[in-house]
């Protein structure tokens, strides 16, 4: 620590200068070794920005079956979600990449994925995410779940809203779509168990799609009611019966409760129950006492009270929610709609991210620029950012066109269509 | 004197009939099908034949003569048929419901939408009904087949410019009509343009259309990607393909019209030689197709090693000149930015379309070398043994033509 300017973060021996590669294998190794490094205390050192070197992101075309890989859309505990393009129909898709190695580390990981695939395969509703294809790569121990493409998550949009709440009419629209999707799931004997804004996706036209059926439960075909025994959903959205540790409970009413918390959250910007840790949180949920902000109108207050009834028997059923006046009411569009925000890279319209990869696929890499752009330091990046900020935005930069002389498509021989 | 009341009565019925039947002088003006939906029939009026024909929803009324086309990925067969009660020739599209799986909703949609529309440049359906495992759709016969058939049979280097202008004029009129009714066609292409015996271009293929009115609201933009349109990709506009938050509107049909006019001019489908992903790149980067002539044809672009026919097509490209107006028309339609693309009602005023008025030539004169697809009297009579007819009609293009 004596000479901070020259100290370097040590990762697996003398790893200076560090190379951040755009390769998920490399990255996971680095992170694993970070987290699993038991030798000595973890110390953070200051590093000169000129000494952090990035390898230029070469957007190399990669194909999985007939799909062209695009940029990363998000990341979960199981792996990444990337954008994809069906090279035959040109339809945008999203792919959940699951790594066996990572799944084993998550409790019930592999089982949950298998169940999710089974469930999604038999579902077909406008407000439930569709599974398009499942591909396996035995060699790499990866699984690809190819799904409908969604541009955003309700959570992301919510965070952009003033006071983190939607205009009432917009929230009403989403809530009604949630009811449609949920009613369908229940009609199919499926209990989602993890309804929350983070699991509600949005398409380009604003259609809401219930996603992530990883912890969902399908009732037995001959089950006489909707009794469930387990729940692995997100704590803040769990009902009192689960917080109090009941052994069996009504599954449908669990989804009603978490939809209630979701409605509370998107209309008030707050959570009905909070707690510094999960024990405190569950204690509060277990009591079932909460307050609704005063600025919420009486009708909505009534609905929230009905959905967040501590006693599942008293709690409204979906049919009753549909009949509720707040749901049936037509809410005027008096306030401006909150729109899907720009991507971090400034892309206003959430356009296809596969274009640079297609460029590579059809016209090959740009030899001219390669030498100059291969390595960039953090220092350079900062300067570039400043340059970008000062200069006016340039969009629609015309990429160089080359004649389509040779077209080679790399395919993974080990990728089998399921 | 006693017969007078009778006479006047019969006269008045004739009057009402003619008022129903003669609002326009077009061969394809039919009573809207929706009004007679319970009977699922309509009253067509042919200029040479003023008798009213009832097309019954009964397979026994139609004598199938020969197969003239296939469509909907082999699930549909289009036959020439004789309407037995009247002796009139009609086209019958028979869709095998067992062979067609996901196309079913599209087919239903096409029938529903077509029934609601009534325009001289849109293909009407006389009636439709179910017969065993097939859906039968009765339509007027389009003797020249599709514009794609015409190109394949006689114009391998493309149609003459004036012929394209005639076709575009008619198709624009049909598009203006459907756009006003909140429909986007989404598959304007040569195989969806049919040419009637009187030389009119008729638009078909409403199967892929979408409605901008949903839940009682007129949407400014549509985001839904036409999921079943693998065969239409070359004609789709960049904004449809992009599938981003901007969405698209009826102007995407104008782009398709531009691609289609290049298809008619060059005799080949633009982008046909490349994979869809590369076509997407070309469109998004703003490299639209062009009508090939001495000015636009780049000799160095393709090696001249293929057969004689290819060389002759190439020579045709190199030696001809399209008018300035035609080049301007296609480049306007193919503007990448939909905001800079003209709206449907502006295009009929374009010099390229206006040249149709200045000439006494008709589309039929220009297509004189084409033998009508369906030479009615000479066709072999054939009851339902359709298989026999296939052999005899092998020379006809059956792959993608006549997609009604």
From TrEMBL, chain A:
Primary residence: cytoplasm
Using the record's annotation, list all stretches that form the Protein kinase domain.
Answer: 67-327
Q: What is its EC number?
A: 2.7.11.1
Keywords annotated in UniProt: ATP-binding, Cytoplasm, Kinase, Magnesium, Manganese, Metal-binding, Nucleotide-binding, Serine/threonine-protein kinase, Transferase
User: Which sites bind ATP?
Assistant: 96
Which cofactors is this protein said to need?
Mg(2+); Mn(2+)
| Localisation per UniProt entry | Cytoplasm
Enzyme class, UniProt record, top EC level: transferase
Write down the InterPro entries for this protein, in alphabetical order.
Kinase-like_dom_sf (IPR011009), LKB1_c (IPR039154), Prot_kinase_dom (IPR000719), Protein_kinase_ATP_BS (IPR017441), Ser/Thr_kinase_AS (IPR008271)
Q: Into which family does the record put it?
A: Belongs to the protein kinase superfamily. CAMK Ser/Thr protein kinase family. LKB1 subfamily.
Catalytic activity reads: L-seryl-[protein] + ATP = O-phospho-L-seryl-[protein] + ADP + H(+); L-threonyl-[protein] + ATP = O-phospho-L-threonyl-[protein] + ADP + H(+)
Question: Which residue ranges have biased composition labelled Basic residues?
Answer: 392-403
Q: Answer whether the UniProt record assigns the keyword ATP-binding to this protein.
A: yes
The protein here is known as non-specific serine/threonine protein kinase
Name the segments for region: Disordered: 367-405
Amino acid composition bias (Basic and acidic residues), ranges on this chain: 376-386
- Classification via CDD domains: STKc_LKB1 (cd14119)
Cite the Pfam families for this sequence: Pkinase (PF00069)
TrEMBL record, chain B:
One Pfam family, please name it.
Pkinase
Q: Where does the Protein kinase domain lie?
A: 62-353
Which InterPro entries does UniProt cross-reference here? Kinase-like_dom_sf, Prot_kinase_dom, STRAD_A/B-like
**Which spans of this chain does the record mark as coiled coil?**
none
Protein origin, superkingdom: Eukaryota
Family recorded in the similarity comment: Belongs to the protein kinase superfamily. STE Ser/Thr protein kinase family. STE20 subfamily.
PANTHER family the UniProt entry points to: SERINE/THREONINE-PROTEIN KINASE FRAY2, SERINE_THREONINE-PROTEIN KINASE FRAY2
What protein am I looking at?
A: STE20-related kinase adapter protein alpha-like isoform X1
Organism annotation: Limulus polyphemus
Gene name of this polypeptide: LOC106476983
């Amino acid at each position: 620590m004596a000479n901070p300017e020259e100290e370097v973060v040590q990762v697996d021996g003398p790893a200076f200068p560090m190379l951040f590669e755009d390769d998920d294998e490399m990255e996971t190794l680095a992170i694993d070794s970070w987290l699993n490094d038991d030798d000595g205390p973890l110390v953070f050192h200051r590093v000169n920005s000129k000494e952090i070197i990035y390898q230029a992101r070469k957007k190399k075309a990669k194909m999985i079956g007939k799909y062209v890989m695009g940029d990363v859309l998000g990341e979960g505990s199981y792996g990444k979600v990337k954008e994809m393009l069906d090279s035959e129909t040109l339809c945008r898709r999203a792919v959940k990449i699951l790594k066996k190695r990572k799944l084993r580390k998550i409790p019930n990981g592999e089982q949950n994925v298998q169940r999710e695939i089974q469930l999604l395969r038999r579902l077909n509703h406008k407000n439930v995410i569709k599974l398009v294809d499942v591909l396996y790569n035995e060699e790499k121990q990866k699984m690809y779940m190819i799904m409908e493409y969604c541009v955003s998550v309700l959570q992301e949009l919510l965070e952009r809203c003033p006071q983190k709440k939607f205009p009432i009419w917009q929230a009403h629209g989403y809530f009604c779509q949630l009811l449609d999707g949920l009613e369908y799931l229940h009609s199919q004997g499926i209990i989602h168990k993890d309804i929350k804004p983070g699991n509600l996706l949005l398409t380009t036209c604003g259609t809401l799609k219930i996603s992530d059926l990883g912890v969902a439960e399908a009732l037995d075909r001959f089950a006489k009611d909707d009794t469930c025994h387990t729940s692995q959903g997100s704590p803040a959205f769990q009902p009192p019966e689960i917080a109090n540790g009941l052994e069996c409970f009504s599954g449908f009413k669990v989804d009603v409760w978490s939809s209630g918390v979701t409605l509370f959250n998107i209309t008030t910007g707050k959570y009905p129950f909070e707690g510094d840790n999960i024990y405190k949180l569950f204690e509060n949920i277990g009591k079932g006492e909460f307050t609704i902000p005063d600025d919420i109108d009486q009708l909505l207050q009534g609905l929230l009270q009905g959905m967040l009834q501590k006693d599942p028997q008293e709690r409204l059923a979906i049919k009753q929610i549909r009949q509720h006046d707040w749901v049936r009411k037509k809410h005027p569009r008096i306030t401006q709609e909150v729109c899907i925000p720009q991507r971090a890279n400034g892309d206003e319209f959430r356009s296809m991210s596969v274009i640079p990869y297609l460029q590579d696929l059809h016209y090959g890499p740009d030899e001219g620029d390669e030498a100059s752009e291969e390595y960039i330091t953090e220092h350079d990046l900062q300067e570039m950012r400043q340059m970008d900020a000062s200069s006016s935005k340039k969009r629609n930069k015309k990429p160089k066109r080359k004649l389509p002389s040779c077209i080679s498509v790399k395919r993974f021989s080990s990728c089998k269509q399921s | 004197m006693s017969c007078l009341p009778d006479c006047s009565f019969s006269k008045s019925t004739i009057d009402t009939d003619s008022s129903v039947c003669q609002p326009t002088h077009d061969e394809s003006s039919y009573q809207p099908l929706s009004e007679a939906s319970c009977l699922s029939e309509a009253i067509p009026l042919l200029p040479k034949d003023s008798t009213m024909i009832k097309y019954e929803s009964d397979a026994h009324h139609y004598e199938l003569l020969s197969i003239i086309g296939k469509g909907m990925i082999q699930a549909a067969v289009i036959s020439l048929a004789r309407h037995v009660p009247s002796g009139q020739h009609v086209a019958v599209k028979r869709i095998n419901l067992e062979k067609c799986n996901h196309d079913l909703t599209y087919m239903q949609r096409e029938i529903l939408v077509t029934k609601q529309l009534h325009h001289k440049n849109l293909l009407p359906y006389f009636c439709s009904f179910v017969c065993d495992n097939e859906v039968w759709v009765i339509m007027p016969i389009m003797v020249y087949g599709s514009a794609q058939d015409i190109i394949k049979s006689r114009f391998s280097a493309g149609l003459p410019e004036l012929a394209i202008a005639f076709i575009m004029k008619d198709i624009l009129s049909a598009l203006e009509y459907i756009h006003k009714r909140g429909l986007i066609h989404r598959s304007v292409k040569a195989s969806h343009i049919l040419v009637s015996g009187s030389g009119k271009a008729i638009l078909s293929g409403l199967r892929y259309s979408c409605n901008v009115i949903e839940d009682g609201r007129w949407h400014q933009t549509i985001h839904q990607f036409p999921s079943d349109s693998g065969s239409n990709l070359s004609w789709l506009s960049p904004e449809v393909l992009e599938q981003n938050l901007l969405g698209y509107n009826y102007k995407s049909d104008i782009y398709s019209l531009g691609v289609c006019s290049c298809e008619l001019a060059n005799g080949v489908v633009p982008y046909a030689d490349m994979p869809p992903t590369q076509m997407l790149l070309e469109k998004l980067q703003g490299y639209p197709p062009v009508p090939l002539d001495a000015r636009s044809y780049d000799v160095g672009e393709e090696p001249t090693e293929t057969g004689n026919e290819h060389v002759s097509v190439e020579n045709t490209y190199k030696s001809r000149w399209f008018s300035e107006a035609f080049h301007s028309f296609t480049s306007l339609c193919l503007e990448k930015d939909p905001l800079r693309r003209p709206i449907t009602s502006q295009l009929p005023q374009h010099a390229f379309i206006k040249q149709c008025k200045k000439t006494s030539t008709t589309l039929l004169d220009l297509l004189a070398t084409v033998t009508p697809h369906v030479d009615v009297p000479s066709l072999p009579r054939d009851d339902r043994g359709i298989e026999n007819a296939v052999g005899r009609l092998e020379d006809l293009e059956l792959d993608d033509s006549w997609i009604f």
